[in-house]
Protein: Major facilitator superfamily (MFS) profile domain-containing protein
Organism: Kwoniella bestiolae CBS 10118
Amino acid sequence: MSHHINENHSEHDDLPIDEERKVEHEVSHEIAEPLEISEDDNKRVLRKIDCVVLPLASLVYFCQYLDKRGLSFAAIFGLQKDLGLKGQDYSWASSIFYFGTLASQLLSIKILHMFSVRAYVGATVVLWGGVMMAQAAPQNARDLLALRFLLGAYPAFVVLISFWYCKAEHPARFAALYGADIIAQGFGGLFLYGLSSIKASIAGWRIAMMVAGALSIVIGLAFTWLVPVDAKGAWFLSETDRQIAVDRVAREHQSAQSKEWKWDQCWDTLKDIRFYLTFIWAFCLCACTVLNFGTLILNGLGYSTFITTVLQLPACGMQLVCLGIAVAACRYFPNRRGVIQVLLAVIPFIGAILLQTLPYEGSKWNLAGALWLTTCNQGIVIVNLSIISSNIKGHTRKTLFSTFFYIGYATGSICGPQLFLATEKPLYRTAMRAIVGLYIVYMVTMASFTLLCKLENRRRDKLAAEGNEEAVAKPGTTLDNESDIRDLSFRYVL
């Protein structure tokens, strides 16, 4: 039988499943007997979720990347000349985007306790689209900076993925999202190239901004309309499958959405050193990105605008390979995610060393290859996000971790472009030296986080061996809002 429910009659037996669960959640965090979900049932429900939630979330990521990276393609199609950008103006146009991200993350802590993740993501994407279309209008650097700031709002996908998927499923789903980023980088670049090449009364890059923005608005509205608030209200699942969708995640001690702010979770999080390590991860990874300057580096090596656009494709191919390696490694070594990230970081680390040391004279293909290696950090990011979504429990605590990660993301992305000095183009040697150092810091902090989780798992195993029943590792029985700090039966993924 695919699943069994306790047959002992209770006062809630006549209630619908959703209402019964609501009563049970209010009374206790446990039910008499957990559901037994067969492998076939689990695969069927997962497949249905993947067919609705994941494609729409991936489209959002595609638009987010297209909107964010539209600037780098516009830069080689006349934007700098048309707006009179000089010196570090372009670097600031890249950086100020993330001041908007920083502001939106501070607001999201409150917003995600007032509205559903679906509403937040949908509104964010529609906002992106409107601002992206407005980017066709600026006449000078000041106008561009104002619009880039507004474009910085960022969706809460760490929280979204943890609500729908089990821990072992997180890396592959984050890979699907970032795969959409890579597709936007490659084929989206060709799309923007085609639009930017249009000869009309207005510049082609302005037409590209308007079309990309309109696409974002359509996808944002579709996401809000089609993605359910949670599994209990999933229109694409039967009543039984909704129950399975809720319980398969609950068994792994995942937390439910909640509008209640838990101060105990807040204080526990602020005292947790791992909270600050996630900030350092995100800062280092985003300060190391070369994507906003990739087109300028290639163009500066002497390649035409068309060849520069085409040369994004090998980089995309290498990123997809690294993404595949990350997913496969997490599947076959599910409790070695920290080690996997450190090994994946070696690839862009080597690329940055080569860009710093290879001579500018002679063959430019060596430098182009080094640049491609330096862009291969997407695999690191998806494992990174999966560690947060899998290891952090409690809605307030998970929201704080996710928000602080993206604050680090925004801060690193603000600082990173300032390392690319206009006087050092096209190879930006100072930036490459800094990137090498940042990857070393990243590897050290990742190893530290993994060690802390391993020591905590050992402490809980010892408590269980000494007879503490609360510390015995066991499946969860229902979605609750208890934190991983207080839930001693919870075990961290390493």
In short: The first helix runs from residue 17 to 27. Confidence is low (pLDDT under 50) at residues 1-34.
